Amino acid sequence: MKRVLEGSHAVAEAVRLAKVQVISAYPITPQTHIVEILSEYCTKGMLKAKFLRVESEHSCMAALIGAESTGVRAFTATSGQGLTLMHELLHWASGARLPIVMAEVNRALAPGWNIWVDQTDSLAQRDTGWIQIYCEDGQEVLDSTLQAFRLAEAVNLPVMIILDAFYLSHTYEPVDVPSQEEVDQFLPPFVPKFQLDTAHPCGFGPLVPPSDYMEMRYDIAMSMERALERFDEIDTAFAAQFNRRYGPVQAIECEDADIVFITTGTVTSTCRLVLQDLRAKGEKVGILKLRLFRPFPVEQIRERLKSAKKVAVVDRNFSFGASGIFTQEVRAALCNMSDHPTVFGFVAGIGGRDITPELLEMIYWQTKNSDVPKKESVWMGLREVKNAD
Amino acid sequence: MPTEIMDREFVYSGHVGCPGCGATIAMRFVLKALGEKTIMVLPACCWSVITGPYPLSALKIPVIHAAFETGGATASGVRAALDMQGDTDTTVLTWAGDGGTFDIGFQALSGAVERNENFLYVCYDNEAYMNTGIQRSSSTPYGAWTTTTTGQDWKKLRKKKIVEVLVAHRIPYVATASIAFPDDLLRKTLKAKETKGSKFLHIYASCPTGWRIPSEMSVKIARMAVQTNIFPLYEVEDGRRYIINYKPKEYLVREYFKLQGRFKHLTDHDLDQIQQMVNEDWELLLNKAGDRV
Predict the structure, then answer these.
(1) Cα distance from B117 to chain A (closest Cα, Å)?
(2) Residue B10 lies in a domain
(3) How far is B228 from chain A (nearest CA, A)?
(4) Could you give all domains of chain A from N- to C-terminal order, each with its CATH number?
(5) Nearest residue to A135 (alpha-carbon basis) of A263, A322, A236, A257
(6) Which one, out of A343, B151, B206, B288, has a CA that is 20 to 30 A from the CA of A80?
(7) Cβ distance A288 to A305 under 8 Å?
(8) Rounded CA separation A364/A357 (Å)
(9) Residue B4 in domain
(10) Distance in angstroms (rounded) separating the CA atoms of residues A221 and B111
(11) Chain B environment of A201 (Cβ under 8 Å)
(12) Rounded to an integer, what distance in angstroms lies between the CA atom of residue A117 and that of residue A57?
């Protein structure tokens, strides 16, 4: 049924339909709408789940680790400071092989206080062993959340569904909400591969010496690689049932493009508009939208970019002392291709500043008119900054 | 009234506790009382190591090792999942040291008991970070040497009164217990098991390695801690009703202190001061308990 939903509520609808059994949450803007409505669903009995109103995000993730280890489907949502407070336990959740699903609303990190969109919070969790999926619109949010449970449980790794603050979390759009019967068909109940059980007492996560630890970590690495295949299988099954398919990346008019934008999240929608305008002017331009960030779909990216001459990566994030983070990842994916496109990195929209069509056009022309990048990442739309050092 | 000590064992040989380890004695008694329908949450502490390395475990109950500061929170999640599966019988037990309780795990503990989660939190107290090598915690008593309070910098701050903090949360049951009083320890564990909501047991667990005492003195020192009023045995129901379980005969704290290497630097004057502190704390407790002794 088509409904007009906020991005946040699209997450909540998917969680309700996934019949999550334990939710644990701590309030932080701009994530709060997700857990407020889930709390209400639990109170009204629309979702038969235990809702833990914990005293911090750190305890939130610890509670989910306890719950999922006891064999139930578990969910939370967070943002910015909350996600970074969880950092230790993000490693723990993947190391313990727990298929927890979390919605993360990208929020800039303090100081100064900024509740607006910036991807540095989630990208700083790159190495925690979580699968990361970046979403463009409300429908994609709902669909990705449903797929996330199936993917997480297939490979026993946690999944993070990532939304832009406000542009996606608080924006109302028409969203097709599937029926419970349809979702039950796509997503069967959680069957844990292991769990705390007094009939079969085991110790989970004890002291592991160097003689065993490395193999355990390699096993996670193998599951992450397998997650790419599982992702495709689940995407295919979802498309067969719901007629919507997303892929780990989405190539838009890339076949004949000389220059390809690389985007994530809602910037992609703005870029689609710019693409139309530039194509109308005869420019050979495309967009490669990245959805899956971990595992990083290197082969798919190489395949889609094989005929491009240049790529312009738009980063709403930054790694100080290096460059935009997606830029680094794309460069690394392409560097062993012979005759690969030149990678131009652009930083834009930090801390919730608008990324306008005009700004994206400037990025295009700068990329087209340069033979080589001037810097690893060029900051766009900046006022003059007088550096004191 | 002595409680019959059950034959059943859940702590097996092959554990790697130090000789005379009070924490191991405490675990053995508590699990005897709780039985096999118990799931343990084990945040970082000596016992993270004592269970033994992968793939073996010296404990014959399911154990989830947890991050240092998450004893209260992880248990909340385990409890929630069991409840969702319709299992309200299994006891969820958090087993944490004093560092994981008084210090780094304090927030998660406070949060869990404020929510009155249905679980038992046991703090086995060896009065310092023993697993990492005897560093001071907020449970380390006034006067003690540790590897971070050495020489003239011995600890000149008093031990946090964790039991009173838990009482302030008005949870159904809070009690102290000691490895030297197994009847009392078993009775309190059984009482906690039968009580719904959050329960907290503070168990005095001597540490021969960290306290610089011979291993065979472990239980004797624990007994003296009670007999000197340094570690009184008492319980508090619903945050209001105090009951003192053991009223000791007059016994000077210096007898307890002089047996332990960690206090050997203390002068007679220091010991007199400590005696005053202990007397003061005992008076406060008596006032709270009224005639319930």
Answers:
(1) 10
(2) no
(3) 38
(4) 2-242 (3.40.50.970), 250-379 (3.40.50.920)
(5) A263
(6) A343
(7) yes
(8) 10
(9) no
(10) 35
(11) 36, 57, 59-63
(12) 19
Take residue A149 and report the two structure tokens written for it.
């449970």
Does residue B276 belong to any structural domain of this protein?
yes
Q: Is residue B250 part of a domain?
A: yes
Q: Do B105 and B69 form a contact (C-beta atoms < 8 A)?
A: yes
DSSP-derived pairing of the beta strands A203-204 and B63-66: parallel
DSSP A202: -
pLDDT digits (tens, 9 = 90+) for B175-198: 999 999 999 999 999 999 999 999
Binding-site residues on chain A for chain B (CB distance < 8 A): 21-22, 24, 48-50, 52-56, 58-60, 62-72, 74, 88-89, 92, 196-198, 200-209, 212
On whether any CB of chain A is under 8 Å from the CB of B93, the answer is no
Contact A157, A94 (CB under 8 A): yes
| One-letter amino acid of B183 | D
For B54-85, give the DSSP string. Answer: TT--SBSS-EEEE-TT-HHHHHHHHHHHHHHT
Question: What are the tokens at A321?
Answer: 């002392």
In a 3-state reduction of DSSP, which class is residue B3? coil
Rounded to 10 degrees, the C-alpha dihedral B59/B231/B70/A222 comes to -30
- Structural domains counted in chain B: 1
- Of all residues in chain A, the one with the smallest CA distance to B76 is A63
Per-residue pLDDT of chain A (389 residues; tens, 9 = 90+): 999 999 999 999 999 999 999 999 999 999 999 999 999 999 999 999 999 999 999 999 999 999 999 999 999 999 999 999 999 999 999 999 999 999 999 999 999 999 999 999 999 999 999 999 999 999 999 999 999 999 999 999 999 999 999 999 999 999 999 999 999 999 999 999 999 999 999 999 999 999 999 999 999 999 999 999 999 999 999 999 999 999 999 999 999 999 999 999 999 999 999 999 999 999 999 999 999 999 999 999 999 999 999 999 999 999 999 999 999 999 999 999 999 999 999 999 999 999 999 999 999 999 999 999 999 999 999 999 998 88
Residue B122 to residues A243, A300, B30, B97, Cα–Cα distance (Å): 53, 52, 9, 8
In chain B, where does DSSP find H-type helix?
A: 22-34, 46-50, 71-84, 98, 106-114, 162-168, 182-194, 208-211, 218-227, 253-257, 268-289
The C-alpha atoms of residue B228 and residue B255 are separated, in whole angstroms, by: 9
Number of Cβ pairs < 8 A linking chain A and chain B = 160
Helices (H), chain A: 7-17, 32-44, 57-69, 80-85, 87-95, 120-123, 138-155, 180-186, 210-242, 267-280, 298-304, 325-334, 357-368
Cα(B82)–Cα(A20) distance, integer angstroms: 14
Minimum CA–CA partner of B83 in chain A = A50
**B66 and chain A: CB distance < 8 Å anywhere?**
yes
| DSSP H/E element including A260 | strand A259-263
Give the closest-approach CA distance of A201 to chain B in angstroms.
4
Distance from CA of A90 to the nearest CA of B (A): 11
Q: Is B197 an 8 Å CB contact of chain A?
A: no
pTM of the full structure: 0.97
CATH number at residue B243: 3.40.50.970
Let me know the angle formed at the C-alpha of B177 by B108 and B210, rounded to the nearest 5 degrees. Answer: 75
Helix (H) or strand (E) holding A2: strand A2-6
